[in-house]
Design a protein that fits this description.
Elements lengths: L5 H19 L6 H13 L3 E4 L6 H11 L4 E5 L6 H5 E6 L4 E6 L6 E5 L6 H13 L1 E4 L2 E4 L5 E6 L12 H4 L4 E4 L5 H11 L14 H12 L5 H15 L7 H4 L2 E3 L3 H17 L7 H12 L4 E2 L1 H6 L3 H11 L5
Parallel strand pairs: 1-8, 1-9, 2-5, 5-8
Antiparallel strand pairs: 3-4, 6-7, 10-11
Length: 328
């Protein structure tokens, strides 16, 4: 961060804390989810949220977009949804006697794809192409999506009947997969009090501008990570691919496929973001360990034997973190 203004960096870190405070005026708890959404926003990564209905996923994303003064669109994925409903289509203008482009809801800064596994492969593919390329093609014209562009997709882990599970290769395009859990007792008590008050209407303020977001991205990119920690990230990823080489014989019986190179890239980026949020200019091993579950849990594919024995991906990741030493 040698070439960056220290005072501006301090101001940005202060504003990030203010963002969390403003969202907290509406959303009770869910600090973990908010933190991960900000990591995705500041590192250009998309987020996959998994949790049962009613855990304020939509409310959190919508409120965050308002605090950041970003355009927000929510898309309810259904079995009859078409790609054109997402990206847009060509419509005929009778007055002009020509076709015009009607842009779809994908043209926003923050997209919430609710129950993304409810729609067939063509729609999922259209969304994931927009995520990867940050552009869409309608007719013969290609349109760049506005920046910043962040997709949060949700999945309901309870009801799987009539769904179209995302293929592993497509799930890999999400930077993080976050499991959203039930609130604590005191949090749910506050939620009940707020939401049962029909006159409740918290006044929230815009904290960050688009330019602030772009500047914070540069500041996070400037966070230093040592060569030994870079090698540590590589070792963690390789341990998921060749567990026996790392004395993980039991875990090797359960792993079908290890993490892809995207895991290495995203571990690096997310660890820098965590260090930045923690007012540091350098990455610590704890930063990598803190984000490892969210980066790896959808990239390590387990076999049927793991399911039969009740072994979860989290168990495998914990074992990898315990066994793999930090490079000197």
């Amino acid at each position: 961060m040698d070439n960056l203004n220290i005072d501006i960096i301090k101001d940005h870190r202060k504003k990030i804390s203010q963002v969390i405070t403003e969202v907290g005026k509406v959303v009770v708890g869910q600090e973990y989810m908010i933190n991960r959404l900000l990591i995705g926003l500041f590192t250009q990564g998309h987020i996959l949220l998994e949790g049962v209905p009613g855990l304020a996923k939509t409310l959190t994303v919508n409120t965050l977009a308002r605090v950041l003064h970003l355009d927000f669109k929510r898309l309810q994925f259904t079995p009859d949804l078409l790609p054109a409903d997402l990206i847009g289509t060509m419509i005929y203008n009778q007055q002009k006697s020509e076709f015009e482009v009607k842009q779809g809801p994908i043209f926003a800064n923050m997209i919430l794809a609710d129950e993304v596994n409810r729609s067939p492969a063509k729609v999922q593919s259209a969304l994931l192409e927009a995520m990867q390329e940050r552009q869409v093609t309608i007719g013969s014209t290609t349109f760049k999506l506005d920046k910043p562009f962040l997709v949060m997709a949700t999945q309901n882990p309870v009801e799987q009947e009539g769904t179209y599970p995302l293929p592993e290769a497509q799930v890999d395009r999400f930077m993080l997969k976050i499991f959203v859990d039930y609130p604590q007792k005191h949090e749910e008590l506050e939620i009940m009090r707020r939401m049962s008050n029909l006159t409740f209407n918290a006044e929230i303020h815009t904290v960050l501008t688009k330019q602030d977001i772009f500047d914070i991205r540069k500041e996070i990119n400037a966070v230093k990570i040592s060569e030994s920690l870079e090698k540590y990230i590589i070792e963690l990823v390789f341990a998921s691919r060749s567990p026996r080489d790392y004395k993980l014989a039991d875990e090797a019986n359960y792993i079908m496929f290890g993490a892809s190179p995207r895991a290495s890239i995203n571990l690096n980026l997310a660890a820098k973001a965590i260090a930045f949020f923690d007012d540091r200019e350098y990455v610590l091993p704890e930063d990598i360990k803190e984000i490892a579950l969210d980066v790896l849990n959808h990239r390590i594919i387990l076999n049927y034997e793991a399911e039969a024995d009740g072994v979860k991906t989290k168990d495998i990741i914990d074992a990898i973190l315990h066994k793999v030493p930090i490079s000197k």
